[in-house]
């Protein structure tokens, strides 16, 4: 039986997230994406050992030049709310299937700083090319820590909840949207991110181009 649970891994009927079984499918997905022309794959699942397994799978399939952007520090955060609501992807509770209510068993604890450093170091050892922190602004200290620990590029994901706060405040006339967005992105860059993923990407690019004109 298959059940769409809203989780990032395969869920057994007793509620256990199946780490290794999930990784097997992630490897197939990564190779499929490489075959379709992807330059990078970026698994968001947070299963242990996935980066090394995907690296091996890509290499064995002949995609040695396809990189991996690892979700090294993806937190069990409330800031994903707007995205999950839009996709209706919150964990689903089923009467005959024990589905965990949250993702705390595999995503990182927001209170734990050292775990991010450890997980990122493991991802780097397994062959990651970029290390990502998600969300971004609540975790600027993590971005800084990874930047100081590793020579790899550090990516930061400015997620839907961060975007929604700024957008809603601007729409209500409480904040100057351009000013606060560019300040927010600057803070992420200042903390050590060399790559920023944000829903404001196109708008921020236009603002920066206008300022440079």
From TrEMBL:
Annotated catalysed reactions: 2 5-aminolevulinate = porphobilinogen + 2 H2O + H(+)
Cross-referenced InterPro entries: ALAD, ALAD_AS, Aldolase_TIM
SUPFAM superfamilies xrefs: Aldolase
The enzyme's E.C. designation: 4.2.1.24
Transmembrane parts of this sequence: none
Entry keyword Transmembrane helix: no
Source organism superkingdom: Eukaryota
Enzyme category, top tier: lyase
Pfam family, one: ALAD
Pathway: Porphyrin-containing compound metabolism; protoporphyrin-IX biosynthesis; coproporphyrinogen-III from 5-aminolevulinate: step 1/4
Keywords: Heme biosynthesis, Lyase, Porphyrin biosynthesis
Function, as annotated: Catalyzes an early step in the biosynthesis of tetrapyrroles. Binds two molecules of 5-aminolevulinate per subunit, each at a distinct site, and catalyzes their condensation to form porphobilinogen.
PANTHER family recorded: DELTA-AMINOLEVULINIC ACID DEHYDRATASE (PTHR11458:SF0)
Family to which this protein belongs: Belongs to the ALAD family.
Subunit structure: Homooctamer.
Protein name: Delta-aminolevulinic acid dehydratase
Naturally occurring in which organism (per UniProt): Durusdinium trenchii
């Amino acid at each position: 039986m298959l059940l769409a649970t809203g989780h990032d891994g395969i869920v057994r009927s007793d509620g256990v997230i199946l780490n290794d079984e999930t990784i097997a499918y992630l490897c197939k997905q990564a190779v499929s994406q490489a075959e379709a022309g992807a330059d990078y794959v970026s698994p968001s699942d947070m299963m242990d050992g996935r980066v090394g397994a995907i690296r091996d799978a890509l290499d064995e399939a002949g995609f040695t030049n396809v990189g991996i952007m690892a979700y090294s520090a993806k937190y069990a955060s409330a800031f994903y709310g707007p995205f999950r609501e839009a996709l209706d992807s919150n964990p689903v509770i089923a009467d005959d299937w024990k589905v965990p209510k949250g993702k705390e068993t595999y995503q990182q604890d927001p209170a734990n700083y050292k775990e991010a450093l450890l997980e990122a170091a493991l991802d780097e050892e397994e062959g990651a090319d970029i290390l990502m922190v998600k969300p971004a602004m609540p975790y600027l200290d993590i971005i800084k820590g990874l930047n100081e620990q590793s020579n790899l590029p550090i990516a930061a994901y400015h997620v839907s909840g961060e975007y929604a706060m700024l957008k809603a405040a601007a729409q209500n006339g409480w904040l100057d949207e351009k000013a606060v967005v560019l300040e927010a992105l600057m803070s992420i860059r200042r903390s050590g991110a060399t790559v920023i993923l944000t829903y404001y990407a196109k708008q921020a690019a236009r603002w920066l181009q206008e300022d440079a004109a």
